[in-house]
Amino acid sequence: MKEYVVIFEWAGSNYSAYVPDLPGCISTGKTLEETENNIKEAIQLYIDTLREDGQAIPEPSLKAKSISVAA
After folding, report:
1. 26-29 sheet: strands from edge to edge
2. Which class does domain 7-52 fall in?
3. pTM here?
């Protein structure tokens, strides 16, 4: 099992998500929950395609953490 960092962004009328460690692995959704489900499926399809093509599966290299500051 691998754990990849996913970046979620509000795009004005929907959410988008991408995985920096998997170039081109992106998805969208109307809600954050839908987007999370969609990107999970996109990650699995991405990895399945790499396997089918005999390519190496990238190791997760990023860590993320929310930091609170007074603003």
Report:
1. 7-10, 15-18, 26-29
2. alpha beta
3. 0.90
Q: CA 34, CA 15: separation in Å to the nearest integer? A: 9
Element (H, E) at 59: none
pLDDT digits (tens, 9 = 90+) for 14-67: 999 999 999 999 999 999 999 999 999 999 999 999 999 999 999 999 999 999
Partner residues linked to 26 by β-bridges: 18
- Whether residue 21 contacts residue 4, with contact meaning beta carbons closer than 8 Å, is answered with yes
Give the separation between CA 46 and CA 58, rounded to whole angstroms: 11
Residue type, 34: E
Contacts of 36 (CB under 8 A, 6+ apart): 6, 8, 17, 29
Q: Give the residue extent of every domain in the chain.
A: 7-52
